[in-house]
From TrEMBL:
GO terms for molecular function: sodium:proton antiporter activity. This is Na+/H+ antiporter subunit G. The keyword Transmembrane helix applies. It comes from Pseudidiomarina insulisalsae. It comes from the Bacteria.
Length: 120
């Protein structure tokens, strides 16, 4: 195995640590946030960014040590397509089941006229 240049070590390490940090923050949000809608937001956004950072680090590592490696892009594309869709479906199910929300979570369905595009 060949030795990586120092600049490559730093760049790859940066993306892996950044991705791991986002994934950790998303996991904490899932654990600590008070209700379903808030808990749904944290892992969807942060964990997707976390996996994205780790995938960028992996692409860089394997492209520098071997040949151009884009296999990881398939993982990223699949994740970036499925995470928002599944979060949307879970949010709609939560609204349909009328899950209890905390007072801090805004429910825009209570005053729909306030958020209307109509010119009165």
């Amino acid at each position: 195995m060949s030795e990586l240049p120092v600049w490559a070590d730093w760049v790859i390490s940066f993306f892996i640590v950044l991705g791991a940090s986002f994934a950790f923050i998303g996991s904490l949000g899932l654990l600590r946030l008070p209700d379903f809608m808030a808990r749904l937001h944290a892992p969807t956004k942060n964990t997707t960014l976390g996996v994205g950072g780790i995938i960028i680090g992996s692409i860089l590592y394997f492209s520098i040590t071997d040949a151009l490696s884009l296999h990881e892009l398939l993982i990223a594309i699949f994740l970036f397509l499925t995470a928002p869709i599944s979060a949307h479906l879970l949010a709609k199910a939560g609204l349909h089941l009328e899950l209890k929300l905390t007072e801090q979570t805004q429910d825009l369905r209570k005053k729909p006229e306030q958020y209307s595009d109509r010119d009165d």
